[in-house]
Design goal:
This protein has 509 residues and is mainly β. The protein has four helices and 35 strands. Mean pLDDT is 94; it is low at 1-7.
Length: 509
């Protein structure tokens, strides 16, 4: 059976809207099985566990959610051992998930459009936030954590994926306190005698907004923390790190809370993009030896950023590669995300920013015009100079479309490689797994051999078969297509982010 259809054989309009829509269905069942239907071969050297998170429920007992980002988190674990792979999925058993499943109806307003039944009277002045734990999942310090940026993490059993409870890091976080869903692992932290550390942030709302920085040692203990007030409304989803800085893009948006408090709109529907305002870039030094470091603020052209690929320091400047949008489309009340008009929207594209510290200026240039998202780099180059970026991308080289391909960009030579799964395939974020062995902590802290020596792991939904597959690509040769497709027995709803650990959590036998 052919593993790969070359991109040139697929028409430019490469997707079928009805097939794409089918990927936005709840997966109500929790499975556990060895994957027996394998096309190609799983590399014997691929050992460890891929964890993925995303909204697994798009409805509550038949009551449809208004936006997929309001869906309850579902963790998938694909454990690789001796040329075989085991699949398991479990919902994060949050307080809100359990309450709604027992009640059989929607009990909470969603951030991105979902309202409780009963109109504005049933929603007015209800500002409760349901922790949906649906964005990222990470194994760190012996704990598997499901993350959602507006509340505390949930701890899971990495072997079974059963929910253990909420994680407060020995009381450093208070109940309900946010802990963002985009942590970075500094592979060689100068503040930890060269040991790895996890860096994360939170946005705390109040009379003003505050960025809190957290740094965790390899045992999962918060060893550094500092807070910084931010002027204006802070809509920040992701950030980047270097050895000395945390970098934030403060997107130019306004928030009018009145329709939300009145029960007329969700919080997300009250956000308005302001193209007349600049994007603010906030640099926060990581060194806390002499007290709380003071942020450095720059301004650049208006635009919107969800995700950053990586950043590094070089010759008195910070180089940052990010996926940028010309604007943020409004979330309209009553709109149906399944009816997205891709051609009417501007695509996300890969841009490079040169933040010149001494001149306090920013220059930017376009690296990749193809529609792309979910950038990923070798974990050992986080915060250091990188050569390769891997992304989910559109099949066609221009325009906006669903992600049907995995794109590799060599930022030094400009060479591109593309593995397209069009016309029937729709792909998730590609997770890069180095071929080299990890260190004693189970982390990949050094580049051994070539930076692209490894595999890319992604989940691809097949609209024709109405099933999903775990696809494995050789990161050095995407043009040959998938070297293995692990066909699941069911579909997996389109997910968000994932991570890989060299620890294998496959069952015995």
């Amino acid at each position: 059976m052919q593993l790969f259809e070359h991109a040139s054989t697929v028409p430019i309009t490469s997707y079928n809207t009805e097939e794409w829509q089918k990927g936005y269905r709840s997966l109500h069942h929790e499975y556990e099985y060895w994957i027996d239907e394998v096309e190609g071969e799983i590399p014997l050297a691929l050992q460890g566990t891929l964890f993925r998170n995303g909204p697994g429920l798009l409805d509550v007992k038949g009551q449809r959610l208004q936006h997929p980002f309001d869906g309850d988190g579902m963790i998938c674990a694909i454990a690789f051992k001796d040329g075989r792979a085991h699949f398991r999925n479990r919902f994060v058993k949050t307080e809100g998930y359990l309450a709604e499943q027992e009640a059989g109806k929607i009990l909470y307003r969603g951030v991105f459009g979902t309202q409780k039944p009963g109109g504005w009277l049933a929603n007015a002045f209800d500002t409760r936030i349901k922790n949906i734990a649906n964005t990222q999942v990470l194994y760190w310090g012996g704990k598997l954590l499901a993350l959602w940026e507006a509340a505390e993490p949930h701890r899971l059993d990495p072997q079974t994926l059963e929910t253990v409870g909420q994680e407060y890091f020995d009381g450093v976080l208070s109940p309900g306190a946010p802990f963002a869903a985009h942590p970075w692992i500094d592979p060689v932290s100068q503040f930890d005698q060269g040991a790895p550390c996890l860096v994360n942030f939170s946005i705390k709302a109040g009379l003003s907004f505050t960025i809190a920085i957290y740094e965790l040692d390899v045992n999962g203990k918060i060893v550094r923390q500092h807070d910084h007030p931010v002027p204006g409304f802070a809509f920040i989803h992701d950030f980047a790190i270097t050895p000395n800085y945390c970098i934030f893009f403060q997107n130019p948006v306004d928030f009018n809370p009145i329709p939300f408090l009145a029960g007329l709109k969700s919080a997300g529907e009250c956000i308005k993009f302001r193209p007349d305002k600049p994007t603010r870039v906030i640099l926060i030094p990581r060194d806390t030896a002499s007290g709380r470091p003071q942020p450095i603020i720059f301004e650049t052209q208006s635009g919107f950023v969800f995700h950053h690929a990586n950043a590094y320091e070089q010759d008195g400047e910070i180089v940052l590669d990010s996926v940028c949008y010309e604007n943020l489309p409004s979330v309209e009340p009553g709109s149906d995300y399944r009816q997205t008009d891709f051609e009417a929207l501007m695509p996300g594209q890969l841009w490079r920013f040169h933040i010149k510290l001494s001149e306090q200026t920013i220059e930017r240039n376009l690296l990749e015009q193809r529609c792309c998202e979910f950038p990923f780099v070798h974990p050992a180059v986080a915060g250091r100079r990188h050569r390769y970026i891997y992304m989910a991308a559109a099949h066609a080289p221009s325009g906006n479309a669903p992600h049907q391909a995995i794109l590799k960009v060599d930022v030094e030579t400009g060479v591109r490689q593309l593995a397209s799964f069009a016309p029937d395939g729709y792909v998730s974020e590609p997770v890069f797994v180095p071929r080299s062995h990890s260190d004693a902590s189970g982390l990949f802290t050094e580049v051994h051999g070539a930076e692209d020596e490894g595999w890319l792991l992604a989940i691809a939904y097949d609209g024709q078969r109405d099933r999903s597959s775990v696809v494995i690509l050789d990161a050095q040769n995407l043009e040959q297509g998938a070297i293995a497709r692990l066909h699941l027995k069911h579909h997996v709803p389109y997910g968000l982010h994932g991570s890989f650990t060299s620890e294998c959590f496959a069952p015995e036998g």
